[in-house]
Each structure stands twice: as C-alpha cells, then as structure tokens.
Amino acid sequence: QVQLVESGGGLVQAGGSLRLSCAASGRTFSGYDMGWFRQAPGKEREFVAAIAWNGNTYYLDSVKGRFTISRDIAKNTVYLQMNSLKSEDTAVYYCAAKTSTSTYYSRIYSYNYWGQGTQVTISS
Predict the structure, then answer these.
(1) Angstrom distance (rounded) from CA 103 to CA 50
(2) pLDDT tens digit string along 2-24?
C-alpha cells in the first residue's frame, strides 16, 4: 500500500505563504496522480489541486494563481505551495494518491490513499 504523511501546516497570517509536504512510502508514486483536498469545519471535503502522472495540473478556481502543486519523484514527495493566503483557506489539508484510471481528478472517489491531514489556520 501507499502511506502518505502530510506536514507543513500551522498558523500563518493572511497574505503569507506556507508549503505543505506529503511524503509517500510503501510504493513509488511516479506513475500516480496526486491530489490535495481540504475540509473546513462543517463543510464537505473539497478538491484543491492535483498533478497527473504526465505533469498536468488542476486547481480549484479560488486558488488558481495562488497555489502551486508540484512533485519530486526522487524524494517521493508532493508539495502544495500556498501564497497570498486568505482566511477562507483555513482547513485541514489532505494529501491523496490516485492509483485508479479515473480522469476525474477533482473527485474524492478517484483517490485510493489518504494522509491523516494537516491543519492550516490563517489569521488576520
């Protein structure tokens, strides 16, 4: 199986930056699609960003231009660089791996493995 461990969450001021990391182990993920999702209290988990095996990236409209997803295959790690953070970005952020052939990158059901989540809190 694939084990995913997120890190890098914390408290940051609005307008600041934060980089989340997701370290994978158990299997290589060079051929996997990877995604980031987030969940705020009382809300459903929502898609944030994904990077496909071919390098194509996908983003939630509200984070386009602010967030960047990337991966380091050699380190088996995927990143989410978050800039110009806003209070509405506050949530628990989850890393996920898609081993299926689904092309629905924004759908939760497309992903097979999930990390435990890391809290991101934006203060004013």
Answers:
(1) 11
(2) 899 999 999 999 999 999 999 99
Per-position DSSP letters for 14-28, written without gaps between them: TT--EEEEEEEESS-
Give the angle subtended at the CA of 54 by the CAs of 67 and 109, to the nearest 5°. 70
Strands (E), 1-124: 3-7, 10-13, 18-25, 33-39, 46-51, 57-59, 67-72, 77-82, 91-98, 113-114, 118-123
The residue to which tokens 């924004």 are assigned:
106
Please report, to the nearest 10 degrees, the dihedral formed by the alpha carbons of residues 43, 15, 50, 62 taken in order: 60
Span 46-87, pLDDT tens digits: 999 999 988 999 999 999 999 999 999 889 899 999 999 999
Place of tokens 């182990």: 25
Q: 31 pLDDT exceeds 80?
A: no
